[in-house]
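Final report, results section. Input specification for complex C-07:
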Amino acid sequence: MTEAVRLQAVAKDYGPVRAVDGIDLSIARGQTVALLGPNGAGKSTTINMLLGLLEPTAGTVRLFGGSPTEAVRAGKVGAMLQESGFAANATVRELVELARALYRDPLPTAQILATADLADLAGRRLDKLSGGQTQRVRFAFALAGNPELLVLDEPTAALDVESRQAFWAAMRRYAATGRTVLFATHYLEEADDFADRVIVIARGRVVADGSGADIKQLTGGRTVSFDRAGTDLDMLRRLPGVVEAEQRGERALLRCDDSDRTVRALLAEGHAWRNLEITGAGLEEAFLSLTASAGKE
Amino acid sequence: MRAYLVFELRRLIREPRMAIFTVVLPVLIYTISSGSSEEAGQVGGVDVAAYLMVSMAAYGALVGALSVGIAVSQERANGWLRQLRITPLAPTQVVAVKALLASLLAIPPVVSVGLVAAFAHGVSFSAGQWVALVLLMWLGSLPFAAFGLALGFTLPPQLTQPVSMLGVFGLAFLGGLFVPVAVMPHVLASIATWLPSNRFAELGWSVVAGQAPPVGGVAILAAWALIFGGLAAWAYRRSAALR
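Structure output:
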């Protein structure tokens, strides 16, 4: 069994609203996968179905060949949910010890505290922690049992830049031990930097699946920018290869999925322009054009 | 499951509010009310000091048993119970631990009010009576533990607290814990005998009178345990249902 996660035609309706609209995906053991998408794309719903906290309206979810609940009971899964609270009146150490006691083969306490950067806070009461510290406790609770699959829903949402870096460093160390990690994020650079594989979700569907580089290539996303010298923005928007056009001061910024065609047309149609620049798109541009095309259907 | 029970017990001991409502308050009411009624003689064949001791112990036990429902409601709202559901701990084990905790909270008021009664108000029983008193009041608190859990798995935290308080006061007052059933108007008195709070305290009153609890009373209490237990199970399933 080399497959950690398998979703087949998974859909979820909330009343008349379809939050997840038929997702198929398979994650091999040992992969670090990012689930990337804007708010409301269906990331959390997908994760909750994957953990057995929500029943799919249609389709099947399998973890390590069994049902999510079986995998969770067997201690194969650790998860960090969005905004989950803790019991009051307990200390960080007590919570970590509780998590260790619930799993068959936990990590040593000292290692958990060090990984989550909590060694200095072990004696602190849970209700006396800052938002960032609480987030690290959630991480500690999720990894304490040394689970084969670690699921993290928007793990860095409450963190400042510094703790964000520390968090990803810890996550990398964990993934390096051969564990499977699945994390949801809407930070594009995080998905690009920390995942072997990026699955882009928009409007409840998988719109792209590959490495960060694959996704950029898939859209061919580049930005063409120039001083537009009076040329009408709507006109530019209609040029071939343009996904989106916007104006920033005097400059026109064209997000393109085929910048070669765009530039050729720009020359051929004789529009006025100066200081032309073509830049490779980051994942952000790729992501925007993917999301936009999912909406056009 | 043992680790979770220990974790919960440790938290409970740190909660000062709990001690105030389940120990200090019943002892205080007991001291005040039995101090003013020392010459009243007997109620239902029992010295007033002993009768009131059981009433106040029962009242404290009600408060204690229902308080766990308030915690459940809060932990449901803040996501902690959800977090526990993605660990190997089975959800039914969580519920079992909560029910056990709720019933255990019935013990401190019985012991503390009992101690004050023995040392300050000259109430004296055999060791066997003390053991029977604590044991029966512990087991007898189960319907209230279930009632608390039913509320906690149904209501949001803002509502669980006031509704629990209302439940405790209603049950305590109508069940004859504040005013003995013997001096209640006829209608209220006949209602009282059907209430779990009255039959719960009756366990204690029987023990201090040196008698076995009446079978009819135990049956009524058991029926309430089934009703509240069923409600709690239903409420739990509803709250944990996969939607």
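Residues 199 and 216 of chain B are 9 Å apart (CA to CA). The mean pLDDT of chain B is 90. This concludes the modelling results for the funded period.
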